[in-house]
Amino acid sequence: MIGRATGRPVTITGLGCYVPERVVTNDELAGLVDTSDAWIRERTGIRERRVAAEAEAMSDISLPAARQALEQAGVRAEDVDLIIVATVTPDMAFPATATLVADQIGAADAAAYDLSAGCTGFMYALAQAHAMVAAGLAHKALVVGGDVLSRILDWTDRSTLVLFGDGAGAVVLEPSAEAGFLGFELGADGAGGPELFFPGSGSRLSTDGQKHFLTMNGREVFKFATRILASSAEAILEACELTVDDIDVYVPHQANVRIIDHAVRKLGFPEEKVVVNVDRYGNTSSGSIPLALAEAAADGRLKPGSLVLMTGMGAGLTWGSAIIRWTHPVGATQTNGAST
Ligand SMILES: CC(C)(COP(=O)(O)OP(=O)(O)OC[C@H]1O[C@@H](n2cnc3c(N)ncnc32)[C@H](O)[C@@H]1OP(=O)(O)O)[C@@H](O)C(=O)NCCC(=O)NCCS
C-alpha cells in the first residue's frame, strides 16, 4: 500500500529509547561460537550489542522509552488513547505487552494492542497510529517498537547470534498545526516467509520435539534487504513528489552496515545524511528505527524542519517507509543504558 497522508496533520511530538545495560562485544561471542571480531565487523559492521538481563522482558525495556517519549511530548499518560507495541518478542502471547505498558504508565482508557511485522513492526505501527489520529479516532497515540531477540536466538549458531541485539524506542503522535507525516509505503511478500521465521512459536505445532530459535537464510534476506530498502524509498519519494536531495535525514533499518551502504549508494545519499548506529546495537528489530531517530536527535541532525525518510524491512518478508517533516524539537534521549 502506498499513499500520501490525508486527514488532519499528524506529527511526532516526543521520542524516547532504551537499551539494556549489558554490553556484549564481538570478542565475548567469539568465546561462545566459532567467529571473530574481525569477521563480524567486516561482514556486518557490528562491534557490540545490548542484551537484556534475565528478568527483563519486552514491557520492561518499553517502559523507560515510553515514559521518556511522553515526557518529551508533555503528554500525561492518562490522556493517551492509543498504545501500539510493535514486537515479535512480547512478554507473552497474551495479554498484549501494550496492555502491560498501559497499566504501568497509567493510561487507563487507552486502546492497547501488539503488532507483529518482524523488524518492520515499528513502521507498520506508525502508519496505523497515524491513520487513527489523522481520522480523529485517536488524539494522543504512543507507538513503541522493540524486541528482546536475545531470548529467541540460538546461542550456539554463529550465523544468527552475532547479528541481533535488544532495545526499544517510543514515539508520541498527535495532531498538529503543520504537516508532520507526508506519506507511507508498506508491503509484504509472504512467499519470502521461510527466509526468516521462528518455528514452534505459535499454533503450528512442531513435531520434532526440539527447542526452536529464530531461523534465517542470511543470503536471501541480504538480497531482499538491499533491493527493498532502495525500492521502497524510491516509491515513497515519488508518491510525495520529493527527491533524495530534499531529504535531510535518512534512517534505514539497522541490520548490517553493508546493507545500509548498498541502499545509500543506490539511492545516492551523501554520508552525512545517513544515520548508522548498528555498530553499537546490532539489529534490534522493531527498536532499530526509533533508536536511530534517537541517535539523530542526540547528534543534532533531527530538528524542526528536517525532512526525514525512514525505511524498515524484516520477517514476512515485510517492508515499510515513511516520510515526515520533523516539527518538534527533541533533545538527546539519554536513557539508562543507552549510549546515544
Ligand atoms: C548473515 C550475513 C552477515 C552473512 O554474510 P555473508 O557475507 O553473506 O556470508 P555468507 O552467508 O556468504 O557466509 C560466508 C561464510 O561465513 C560463515 N559464517 C557465518 N556466520 C559467521 C560468523 N559469525 N563468523 C564466522 N563465519 C561465519 C558461513 O558459515 C559461511 O561459511 P561457508 O562458506 O563455509 O559456508 C549476511 O548474509 C546478512 O547480513 N544477511 C542479512 C541478515 C539480516 O539482516 N537479517 C535480518 C533482517 S531484518
What are the key terms here?
about 350 residues, 14 strands, disordered C terminus, binds coenzyme A, 10 helices, 5-stranded mixed sheet, alpha+beta, single chain
Account of the protein in words:
The chain has 340 residues and is α+β, with helices and mostly antiparallel strands. It contains ten helices and 14 strands. The strands form four sheets. It has a five-stranded mixed sheet, with helices on both faces. A five-stranded mixed sheet has the order 2-8-7-5-6, with helices on both faces. Helix 3 packs across helix 4 and helix 7 runs parallel beside helix 8. It starts with a strand and ends in a 15-residue tail after the last strand. The C terminus is likely disordered. The structure holds coenzyme A.
Oligomer: single chain
Q: Count of helical segments?
A: 10
Content of β-strand: 15-25%
Termini gap: 33 Å
Largest sheet descriptor? 5 strands, mixed
The strand count comes to 14
Order of neighbouring strands in the sheet with most strands: 1-9-14-13-12
Ranges where pLDDT stays below 50 over 5 or more residues in a row are: 336-340
Structural class: alpha+beta
